Amino acid sequence: MTVRIGIIGIGQQGSMYSSVVAHGKLMGNDIGTVEGMELGAVCDISLERKTWAEENIPNVPFFTDYIEMMDSGLVDAVLVVVPHYLHPEMSIEAMKRDLHVLCDKPAGVYTKQVKEMNEFAATKPELKFAMMFNQRMNPLYIKLKEIMDSGVIGEIRRTNWMITTWWRPEGYYQMSEWRATWGGEGGGVLINQAPHQIDLWQWLCGMPTKVLAKASYGSQRNIAVEDDVTALVEYANGATGSFITCVHDLMGTDRFEILGDKGKIVVDGSKKITLKVLNESEKEISKNLSFDDMKQLFMGGGIGDRVTETTFEFADQWGIQHKDVMRNFADAITNGAELVAHGSEGINALSITNAMHLSSWLGEEVSLPIDEDLYFAKLQEKIDEEAAKKAN
């Protein structure tokens, strides 16, 4: 069986997916087509995108109404690549028609909405429901997941991720009216650029229980939403973490550190893992260290044979991972393969994002799960303020 995928939304991202499925091309480079999948139809409300489709995928049916595409009989599954607020709504409509769903990130804008999608998906267990968390197919993060699951660094004490490689010029925000708005996108760097890293953070280290965030809104770009965020989190075991991101660092940093009681992991540039494992836990070393060893350590002697260091390096495979998620999705439909990221997992990263927003709005620490009604009310205030400003 070949899965006929219908892509809803063929803007910048959707057109990339269309080209990969139809031609095996990504930004002009040959990466091979998606095994077990073909492009059944595409949909977009823009006549400009219709022209693009006629020129680039001329034999693929084009629809301007996604319901008509779903009811056409031309597709077995859909890939939802539209503004974020529409992700849950369109995913539910597809599942109502017994179509499998692959949803682009984020799962939605607010968890209350995404819960409705997850609850409906649970009534359709025969359907495959997946998230496009392509970074989970990055060989580096597959290896990192393996290391974390092995427990080799022991219990987590601290996690820190600085990911500021999202530089966007002012013109980027003028590309679409919905972009970087509360009413159209539901946020800024947290909801648009950083969801993959927030998903990886919780996938690898678990969900935090408390969040305290400082966010700057339109500080360096002429936008209403957040363009710079520093967040502190606490985990159930008392461990702490931080997440720092922005869109105005032209030189950018991508550094992820995970400290455990038996070791430490440092990821640089999403290309290199440095794993340091202690021969016994830090607590045991602290308790049993002799005076002479302590003296040597304080005098710069280092920890020497108490630690084993291993490095793993990986080539950049951007784009291949998107293809791999689609291949996995097709394999799950036809052969029952386990999904890389089940659709219900999309709420985890979004919960952290919502908590960061709410904490910054209230100016205080918030606990997870957050008060969803309060979050929605505050979000609606932002949307109303934005609309009033535009009207004036």
TrEMBL record:
One of its GO terms (molecular function) is nucleotide binding. InterPro entries: Gfo/Idh/MocA-like_OxRdtase_N, Gfo/Idh/MocA_Oxidoreductase, GFO_IDH_MocA-like_dom, NAD(P)-bd_dom_sf. Residues 141-265 form the GFO/IDH/MocA-like oxidoreductase domain. SUPFAM superfamilies: Glyceraldehyde-3-phosphate dehydrogenase-like, C-terminal domain, NAD(P)-binding Rossmann-fold domains. It holds the Pfam family GFO_IDH_MocA_C3. It comes from the Bacteria. Residues 3-124 form the Gfo/Idh/MocA-like oxidoreductase N-terminal domain. PANTHER family: D-GLUCOSIDE 3-DEHYDROGENASE, UDP-N-ACETYL-2-AMINO-2-DEOXY-D-GLUCURONATE OXIDASE. This is Gfo/Idh/MocA family oxidoreductase.
